[in-house]
Design goal:
Number of helices: 8
CATH architecture of the largest domain: 3-Layer(aba) Sandwich
Largest sheet: 5 strands, parallel
Number of domains: 2
Strand content: 15-25%
CATH class of the largest domain: Alpha Beta
């Protein structure tokens, strides 16, 4: 997969993209990330990319012209993919959306900054808007990093094991079960016995139950859309009656 990121602060990205899983994915050729500085595309004398908003108001607004020309450069002759603006009014980034985006050959991410982007640039250059949450950042760069990391996990080979992204939180609509590693006992706390007996069927059943328990305790809203068996629904109701999540 190839991801091109349009930004006025390309220097923010390199440490994130060069480390850990993303760094290895790039080294192995599984992921290519191109950072495109919007500033050189400005036709202003001082290469500025923002100006005061019409109608007044605080802050500055990113200019349409440099964004348009930078996007045209990023697309090249045979662009096949999706052009995304990272903004607070977009659809919420989710596991299902990340999995969908990972199937694309190419993505172009536009990072907004200051008080926003001239709407004409968004109308002309963007296919969709995506938000990483209901809060405001100083710019779209951090959001672009989050989206890149999230999408990269679904590119075959990036995580090493094809099962890894499907066993984590939100992959099936639930939070992930608790994880343990060595030593077996630490500070008087022990690993649940079921994880030590080698019975994979019992381990899977325990993990499913603990995912339900964690979801009920920390994100009960997720249970409304999760696919649950009648037995699981009954178990959840029993937990609610016992008020386990308050203890």
């Amino acid at each position: 997969m190839r991801i091109k990121i349009l930004t006025v602060f390309p220097e923010m990205f390199e440490s994130v993209l060069s480390a850990s899983i993303l760094g290895r994915a790039r080294e192995q050729g599984l992921l290519q990330v191109d950072l495109i500085d919007i500033r050189p595309f400005s036709d202003r004398k001082h290469k500025n990319t923002d100006d005061y908003p019409f109608g007044g108001g605080a802050g500055m607004v990113m200019l349409a012209q440099p964004i348009h020309d930078a996007m045209r450069f990023a697309m090249g002759e045979n662009f096949r993919g999706r052009r995304i603006y990272l903004g607070p009014r977009g659809k919420r980034l989710s596991t299902s959306l990340a999995r969908e985006l990972a199937l694309e050959e190419e993505l172009i991410l536009l990072c907004g900054h200051y008080e926003g982007v001239d709407q004409r640039a968004l109308d002309a250059c963007v296919d969709e808007e995506i938000s990483i949450g209901d809060y405001i950042l100083t710019g779209g760069e951090l959001a672009a990093m989050v989206l890149t990391d999230c999408v990269a996990r679904f590119i075959p080979g990036v995580l090493g094991s094809s099962d890894s992204p499907e066993e984590e939180s939100f992959s099936d609509g639930l939070l992930e079960y608790p994880q343990y590693t060595r030593p077996r006992e630490w500070e008087g706390r022990t690993v649940p016995e079921v994880l030590l007996n080698g019975d994979h069927a019992k381990i899977q059943a325990w993990r499913r139950q603990e995912s339900l328990r964690a979801t009920l305790r920390f994100r009960p809203d997720l249970l409304e859309k999760a696919e649950l068996t009648s037995k699981e629904k009954k178990l959840i109701e029993e937990w609610k009656e016992s008020c386990f999540c308050e203890n």
